[in-house]
Amino acid sequence: MNIKKLIFEGEGVTLDFKKTITSCEKIARTMVSFANNKGGKLLIGVADDGTIKGVKSEDEERYMITRAAHMFTRPALEPTFEEIYVDDKLVLVVNTQASDLKPHYALADDGKWWAYVRVKDKSVLASKIVLEVLKRSASDKGVLIEYSENEKTLLSHLEQVGRVTIKECSELLKMGRRRTQRILVDLILSGLIRINTTEKEEYYTAC
C-alpha cells in the first residue's frame, strides 16, 4: 500500500483521516458509513490536511476503535488493522469492509441508533429511502417491477427534466410520501433510477 499516494489523493468516499481517536461515537459513525457503502480505510495519525503526525499510543487507538466497532455499531463491525511507518512515524490503517448485513447503525450521543452513508468525504445520515434500499439490497429477494402508469409517468418526467426530489415526485404522481417512497425504492433496486445524496438534499436521476 502506497500510503503517501493515498494521503495525497485526500479524504473521500473510501478514505478518512484522523489525527487521533477522541470519541467512540464519531469513529463508529465513520465505520458505519463505510460498511453501508463500498467499505473504506481510516488512517489514524494523519491530520485533516494530510500532515503525517503519527500515532502516540497504538494500543490505546486500537482499543478505542475495537470498542467503537463492537459496542457503538449495530450489527457490530470487525475492522482489520495494518501498521505502516512513514518517515519514522506510525500510521495505523483501519480497514472496514463493505457489509452484507446492511444497514449498520451507529450509537449517537443522544442514545439513539442512526444509519449513515458516505457522501464524498462526509458521513451523512441515511434517509428513509436509502435505508430501505440498503435493507432490500442486502436481502436476496429480487425486485418484481410492475409497470403501472405511475412508473411510466415518473420515468418519462425524468427523461424530460433530468432530476426529481421526493416532494416533486409526490406532487407529480399525486400520492402520499410513503407510496411515492415505495415506487422510488423499487426503481432504484431495479437499476432504472439512481439516488443522489448531497449534504443538503437528495434527488433522483435516470440511470
TrEMBL record:
Domain called Schlafen AlbA-2: residue spans: 11-124
Nucleotidyltransferase listed as a keyword: no
Protein name stated in the entry: ATP-binding protein
Lineage of the species this protein comes from: Bacteria, Pseudomonadati, Bacteroidota, Sphingobacteriia, Sphingobacteriales
Organism expressing this protein natively: Mucilaginibacter dorajii
Record key words, sorted: ATP-binding, Nucleotide-binding
Domain of life according to the entry: Bacteria
MF GO annotations: ATP binding
Gene3D superfamilies according to UniProt: Schlafen, AAA domain
